[in-house]
Design goal:
The structure holds 2 protein chains of 2 kinds. Chain A is an all-alpha fold. Chain A is 86% helix and 0% strand. Classes of the chains: A mainly alpha, B mainly alpha. The A-B interface holds A 146, 149-150, 153, 156-159, 162-163, 166-167, 169-171, 173-175, 177-178, 181, 197-198, 201, 204-205, 208-209, 212-213, 216, 219-220, 222-223 and B 68, 120, 123-124, 126-127, 130-131, 134-135, 138, 140-141, 143-144, 146-148, 150-152, 154-155, 158-159, 161-163, 165-166.
């Protein structure tokens, strides 16, 4: 029971900090929009089947923009020295991880809730919402779990801003490919059996990395 | 200390002989492949370094687990050495593979499942090196790097599966012609050569691993002495 109270306290603290400034979230939103615009120029996406190429564009926007939020998650705490305070408090390390991961999940989802309609409008994509939203949620869950752990790792190095993408992207490749494939399947209205392998892969990735990140997190923040 | 050095010197000589024998097998003993010609001979060392690179992350993860359990920096040095050798042998494997693929497949690189998986794994090794080099003198880096090794090794099955789902598995190396892909039939002499070369490269790998871990402990001693005498 006390674990959930701690978890709630961490999540509430994260939300409050972000709500007061809204710095990270606004940066993520602007960045995601910029990625969409740049892709439009770089690939000249007029005339191609956007249901095939669109998912790639969308997930690059999601992941690049998400990394900005993830990078701030622990770097800001280190800068303010507030991480030490949190670690000194009698709080379960697992609760810190889950609270942080949940807050990151919420921030990334908030960015995606704005970016997805923008994508639909800007690229004129015919869209089916039903399975798509579920797949995006699944992809984002794994992304937030691995991202939170690696954000903590990157924040303890000297080159923290550069380090996170370098560490995160190689690990993230299977998740990104699976998410793109699922998004493609949903946009093209393919039968589920066509991409069920990807669904299973993403589900396994989410579960395994959430558990592993939860278990190893204490080794990262231990001083 | 001294006997330790002696053993590693003896292993060095064993390695030298093994590599010489491997070269003899690859260049003299093995018959020239009918369609590819002599370029196929690079394949023996390609497979050896490939195997060395693939096993690196497993040994590194085991060493990292032992380090986190015991806090003994010896295991961390082994883990670090493994990941570094993973970068080295991975690069050799990628380079020799490209040299082989250019005349045989007509292209330096193709996004075939096996190649794609290997490249992503190699990028994980490189990411680890970046992490290590970014804060070489930080005492907490060993623990953080061990955690990243775990993340990497857990990612390996996904890295192996995802490109196979993406491209489908194309058997391009041995056996019968499966999907109209280019294949060759391996003769017993070639198989023997392959085996000898893999053993030779593994000897070299172990020798380098021991040397690198030893170098790490010397570096740690130097750092300790520096601190002691206040430089």
């Amino acid at each position: 029971m006390i674990f959930f109270r701690q978890l709630y306290a961490i999540i509430a603290k994260e939300m409050q900090v972000e709500w007061r400034t809204k710095e990270t979230l606004s940066a993520m939103l602007v960045f995601a929009l910029l990625v969409l615009v740049i892709f439009n120029f770089a690939f000249d996406l007029q005339g191609v089947d956007i249901r095939v190429f669109g998912p790639g564009v969308l997930w690059v926007a999601f992941s690049f923009s998400g990394i900005i939020g993830l990078g701030r998650s622990f770097a800001a705490e280190r800068d303010r020295g507030s991480l030490d305070g949190m670690l000194l408090a009698p709080v379960d390390r697992g609760a810190i991880f889950l609270g942080k991961a949940f807050a990151n999940l919420v921030f990334i989802l908030a960015m995606e809730i704005v970016t997805l309609p923008l994508f639909v409008i800007l690229f004129n994509v015919p869209i089916e919402w039903f399975p798509l939203v579920g797949y995006i949620l699944m992809g984002t869950l794994g992304f937030a779990a691995v991202g939170t752990l690696l954000s903590a790792i990157a924040a303890s190095t000297r080159m923290r801003d550069v380090m996170l993408p370098v560490l995160l992207f190689p690990v993230l490749v299977p998740l990104l490919v699976a998410s793109v494939k699922l998004t493609q399947g949903a946009l093209q209205n393919l039968p589920f059996s066509d991409y069920q392998g990807w669904f299973n892969l993403l589900l396994a990735y989410d579960v395994i990395f959430l558990v592993v990140a939860y278990l190893v997190f204490e080794f990262v923040v231990e001083e | 200390m001294n006997t330790k050095r002696n053993w590693s010197d003896i292993w060095g000589i064993v390695t030298l002989i093994a590599v010489m024998v491997g070269l003899y097998f690859a260049f003299v003993y093995a018959p020239t492949e009918a369609t590819m010609g002599s370029i196929q001979r690079i394949f023996y060392f390609h497979m050896g370094s490939n195997a060395a690179s693939l096993t690196s992350i497993l040994i590194a993860a085991i060493a990292a687990a032992l380090f986190l359990r015991s806090g003994n920096l010896k295991y961390d040095r082994v883990s670090y050495a493994c990941m570094e050798l993973g970068v080295l042998f991975g690069a050799i494997s990628l380079a020799t593979g490209m040299i082989w693929a250019r005349p045989v497949w007509g292209t330096w690189w193709t996004w075939e499942a096996r190649l794609t998986s290997f490249l992503i794994l190699w990028l994980v090794y490189v990411a680890y090196m970046m992490l290590r080099l970014s804060s070489a003198n930080d005492p907490t880096i060993a623990r953080i790097a061990a955690v990243f090794t775990f993340v990497g090794v857990i990612d390996v099955p996904f890295i192996m599966i995802a490109p196979r789902l993406w491209r489908g598995l194309h058997p391009v190396l041995f056996g019968t012609n499966a999907g109209g892909e280019f294949t060759f039939n391996i003769t017993p002499e070639m198989l023997t050569t392959l085996f000898v070369c893999i053993v030779a490269v593994m000897c070299l790998y172990i020798w380098l691993l021991v040397q690198r871990a030893h170098l790490g402990s010397l570096q740690a001693q130097v750092a300790e002495l520096r601190e002691q005498y206040g430089e």
